[in-house]
Amino acid sequence: DAKTTQPNSMESNEEEPVHLPCNHSTISGTDYIHWYRQLPSQGPEYVIHGLTSNVNNRMASLAIAEDRKSSTLILHRATLRDAAVYYCILNTGNQFYFGTGTSLTVIP
Amino acid sequence: EAGVAQSPRYKIIEKRQSVAFWCNPISGHATLYWYQQILGQGPKLLIQFQNNGVVDDSQLPKDRFSAERLKGVDSTLKIQPAKLEDSAVYLCASSSAWGQLNTEAFFGQGTRLTVV
Questions:
Q1: Does B45 sit within 8 Å of A49, measured CB to CB?
Q2: What angle do CA A79, A48, B30 make, to 5 degrees?
Q3: Pick from B4, B101, B104: CB nearest A46
Q4: Which chain B residues have a beta carbon less than 8 Å from that of A36?
Q5: Residue B59: left (phi > 0), alpha (psi -120 to 50), or beta?
Q6: Angstroms from B46 CA to nearest CA on chain A
Q7: pLDDT for the residue B101
Q8: Which of A12, A86, A96, B4 has its CA 20 to 30 A from that of B48?
């Protein structure tokens, strides 16, 4: 029951910032926005999450729209190791429903 | 801290055979998830446990799939009999608390099943 919409693929040059968008127009007031990424042949790994305010951690930043119907994951300087599929997920009832994600290609 | 452990990493079986996957979550994690990931798709939630009780199995094909989590720790997922369309990676994940929407889930590396 994916409740988020993301572009299928994006490209970025190495060491440039990347903005990965996500639409979640049916978000409810208590849903947290989570981002995970999946490197080839590995399980998904947590990137960041937020509720209303913008969030920063060592991996990325999360910008959440004022109406919470969209968000953007920001990688400040893309590296080759950031090439992965990025999933935007609404955590509702402690359940993680994945969509198809955005496949990020980083160009050297 | 040790991560989520899954075994085996790979399994090849013939259709109509049975197969079982094992998952050991992170110590102390109450919530455990099993996902199925078909090539090119995002993970699909099959079942979710809170301790040893099932809280969501709405997407589990119960005619052939079963899962249990004895004593609220390790879990096994079984397929009997397998079909060709069951070929996928089966992912196990765990998280520390139920009802806290700001907790993250930790995933294992998965078991890649090929049904021939």
A1: no
A2: 130
A3: B104
A4: 105
A5: alpha
A6: 10
A7: 64
A8: A86
Per residue in B34-59, is it b (16+ CB within 10 Å) or e — as a string?
bbbbeeeebbbbbbbbbeeeeebbee
Q: Give residue B99's pLDDT.
A: 59
- Round the average pLDDT of chain B to a whole number and report it: 93
- pLDDT tens for each residue of B38-47: 999 999 999 9
Is B31 in contact with A94 (Cβ distance < 8 A)? yes
Q: In chain A, which residue's Cα lies nearest the Cα of B90? A: A43
Task: Tell me if A69 sits within 8 A of A3, measured CB to CB.
Answer: no
Contacts of B8 (CB under 8 A, 6+ apart): B21, B111
Q: Decide if B101 and A92 are in contact by the 8 Å CB cutoff.
A: yes
Percent of chain B clearing pLDDT 70 (strictly above): 94
pLDDT digits (tens, 9 = 90+) for A62-75: 999 999 999 999 99
What was the pLDDT predicted at B103?
A: 80
Is B109 an 8 Å CB contact of chain A?
Answer: yes
State the Cα–Cα distance between residues B84 and B114, nearest whole angstrom: 8
Per-10-residue mean pLDDT for chain A, 108 residues long? 86 97 90 93 94 92 95 96 95 79 97
Q: Which residues contact A55 (CB under 8 A, 6 or more apart)?
A: A48, A49, A61, A62, A64
